[in-house]
User: Fold this.
Amino acid sequence: MKLTEHVYYYPEKMMPDCNSYLIKDELTLLIDPGSAESLTELLADIKRDGINPEDIKLIANTHLHPDHCWANNSVKQLTGAKIVGHPLHQKYYQATIKKMGNYFGMTGLEFETDSYMENGKLDIGHLVLEVIPSPGHAPEQVCFYSPEEKFLVCGDVIFAQNTGRVDLPGGNAKDLKQSIESLSQLDIDYLLPGHMGIIAGKEKVQQNFEFIRNTVFNWL
Assistant:
């Protein structure tokens, strides 16, 4: 589903899948490929939007939970795309992959990162994405923000009228609140979370931040 000139949205279809986002620019970027079990369906959706999956050149993740990164290796093998990570992913890779694999009783989650972002930026052509550390749900969580198109791919930091869990390994409620408060200061027209629906429109995005602040924060 095309959202903006550059952004395509592929919603989750089954558990434990997640929302995937494709940013089509000079370099085509796939954020959070999701579950290996749903990859065939995701690639079919991408083709239906007139995009050849082999045009995907970069793979990135908001964080390293298996529902977001399980398909990394498969996408890499099928398309030849390179996996690009944030330094926080490098720092927490071993601990997160091991702990989350044990938590969910899953194996085969490991993948090799080809390069790491520098200076908190990811240049894919016309768009230069700001990559913002946003811990709380996971210590290695980052968000991808476009000042040009005013979209925020926020992983499991914040959803429509909810937030990511803080009871998984590495979760921290205080950090999550601080991350959300910081993100709420951005100029956002499209809030693109890792699960459930997107939020479109500046006013609706800010209303959602306010709801989280006034309602959900009390339960974290």
Remarks:
- The longest helix spans residues 87-104.
- The first strand starts at residue 7 and ends at 10.
